[in-house]
Amino acid sequence: MRQSGAHSMFFVAIICPPSVDKKVLQYKRLMKEQFGCIVALKSPAHITLIPPFWLEDEREKALVDTLQLFSSDIDTLKIHLNGFSHFGKRVLFVKVNENPALEEVKKQVENHFSKVFNDVFKKGDRTFHPHVTIANRDIKPSDFLTAWEYFSQKEFNEIFRASLFHYLS
Fold this sequence. Notes:
This protein is of the alpha+beta class. It has one domain (7-168): Cyclic Phosphodiesterase, Chain: A, CATH 3.90.1140. Helix content is 34%, strand content 31%. The chain contains four helices and seven strands, in the order βαβαββαβαββ. The protein has helices at residues 18-35, 60-69, 100-117, 141-152, and strands spanning 7-15, 46-56, 77-87, 91-96, 131-136, 157-162, 166-168. The strands form two sheets. The chain has a four-stranded antiparallel beta sheet. Strands 2-1-7 form a three-stranded antiparallel beta sheet, covered by helices on one side. The longest helix is centred in the N-terminal third of the chain and has 18 residues, at 18-35. It is globular. The chain starts with 6 loop residues before the first strand and ends with a strand.
């Protein structure tokens, strides 16, 4: 839902490389064709670091500047995507193997980002559970079991190095 006035929704993420995005897109399209799920098709394959938030359009430059000023002692991250899983009956995703460096980068991004945008972003108490979404929010609970039966039998195994963070709107 879009707020009134000149606001846009943004989030900060690690974007998967095109080869991985292409593989994930095949599964997103399958979910659209089989179950009418379209929400996950609206963004490229990614790992969310800062969850969606609303921001006044005139502050977008400050967002870009803040992200460009981010630095970490972790130059590149080795990301291993391995298999599928789900959150309840609402989200199907590609699993990201446990990765202490990724967790540290997420904390660093949160700390850096919250200094400038503490009015729109609050660090969450939820455990960081990195994943690459295949379907969310618009999967019907009645379709979930059929979809999960399919994905639970599939394999997904990709490794890539991530060095750039992006914001998406």
